[in-house]
């Protein structure tokens, strides 16, 4: 929940965030009060470069797949037009 709230304020995707408390990264699934975080506790938010790179590569791969699907559709339409003649 905290990462979602921070994402809206920082523009940083929740999967690209790393939250630290007392110099240890906190798991997204952990409840903050169970890890010792109290009101007014200082937490550090860092951008996770590996996660950002993975998302970028996935985005490029998806773009290539979409381009290939579009090309296949165009060829299929052309074949249908030629078959109809």
From TrEMBL:
GO terms for cellular component: cytoplasm. One of its GO terms (molecular function) is adenyl-nucleotide exchange factor activity. One of its GO terms (biological process) is protein stabilization. Gene3D superfamilies: BAG domain, Phosphatidylinositol 3-kinase Catalytic Subunit, Chain A, domain 1. It comes from the Eukaryota. PANTHER family: BAG FAMILY MOLECULAR CHAPERONE REGULATOR 1, BCL2-ASSOCIATED ATHANOGENE. This is Ubiquitin-like domain-containing protein. It comes from Nymphaea colorata (pocket water lily).
């Amino acid at each position: 929940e905290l990462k979602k709230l921070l994402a809206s304020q920082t523009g940083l995707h929740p999967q690209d965030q790393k939250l630290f408390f007392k110099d240890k990264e906190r798991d997204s699934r952990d409840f903050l009060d169970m890890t010792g975080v109290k009101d007014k506790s200082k937490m550090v938010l860092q951008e996770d470069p590996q996660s950002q790179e993975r998302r970028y590569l996935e985005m490029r791969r998806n773009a290539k797949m979409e381009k290939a699907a579009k090309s296949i559709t165009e060829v299929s339409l052309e074949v249908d037009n030629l078959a109809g003649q």
